[in-house]
Amino acid sequence: MSEPSVLVASERAYGLAEGPLWDAARERVLWVDIKAGAVHAGSLRDGVIDDAAPLVAFDETVGAVVCAEDGHLLVAGARDLYGVDTDGRRSPIAPLVDTDSHSRLNDGACDPAGRFLVGGMALGDRAGEECLYRLADDGRVTVIDDDLTLSNGLAWSPDGRVLYSVDTAPGILYARPYNAVSGSWGERAVALRIENGGSPDGLCTDAAGNLWIAIWGAGQVRSYTPGGELVATLEVPTPHVTSVAFIEPELDTLLITSAHEDESPNAGYLFTAHVGARGTPLTSWAGMGR
Prior knowledge:
- This protein is about 0% helix and about 45% strand.
- It is mainly beta.
- Strands 1-26-25-24 form a 4-stranded antiparallel sheet, with no helix packed on it. A 4-stranded antiparallel sheet has the order 2-3-4-7, with no helix packed on it.
- A hairpin with a 3-residue loop joins strand 9 (about 75) and strand 10.
- The chain is globular.
- The N and C termini lie far apart (about 50 Å).
C-alpha cells in the first residue's frame, strides 16, 4: 500500500502551531499559535483551513485551547487558565504555575468526562519539576504528575480507560489506568521510548486504539499500537512537527501542525492526510458549574 500523501492545508505559516482539535458542534478546527499568544479557528474548504485572523489573542504565550458545548473556550495562558465567552470576553479561571517559577503551561486536553488536563514545561535547564494538572468543573485543581520536564500530548484510549501522556525531553510516552467517572487514575508506566530520530510531541488516538504521535525534529507522524508496535510512518515536509488531530464530521482527516523553527519552505504550516483511520469523538469541556 502506498504511503498517504501529506498536503499543505494552510495559506500561511504559524510561529508554533499546536493543540489542534475538532469542535464538532461548530464544525471547525481550533488550534493555538503558542508564541503569538493566539487561538485560531477555521474550517477545511477545498483542502485549505480558512483562517483570516486569530479568534482570540493574548499578550502571553497560549499553550492550549478546548471548547465547551455552548462555545465557551478554556485557554491555557503562560501560567493561568482563562475562560473566554462567545463574545470574546475573558475571565480568570485558575492560576496554576507560580509566578517565580521559570515555567509555562503547554499542551492540554479534556478527559472523557470533560475535565481539563494541562501540563507545564521548563523554560531553563531544570528537569523533573513540572506538573500535569487537572481542573474539575467545580474549580478544584489536582496535580497528577509533579516530576515532568516538558509535558506535552495527552490522549485517551477509545474506551477512556487509559490516559496517554508525553514527556518530550526524555522522549517518553506514559500510559496509566484512568477512570473518568470517579476521576481516579492508576500508576503510570512507560508505554514507549523514542530515543533517537526526534522527540514525541502531540498525539491522538484513533477508533482502533492506535496512537498517532507527532515526532518533533524528524518531520514525521508515527502510528503505534497500544503495545508499542510501529504500524505507520508519515513523512511531513518540514522537520518540526508538533501535534495531530482527526478532524471533519467523519473524523477521517488527520490534521498536522508544525512550527516555524527552521528555514524549510513549509515550516509552520498546517497539513492534512487521509491515513485510512478514523478518530473518536472528543468530549467537550464541562465548563465551570454550567
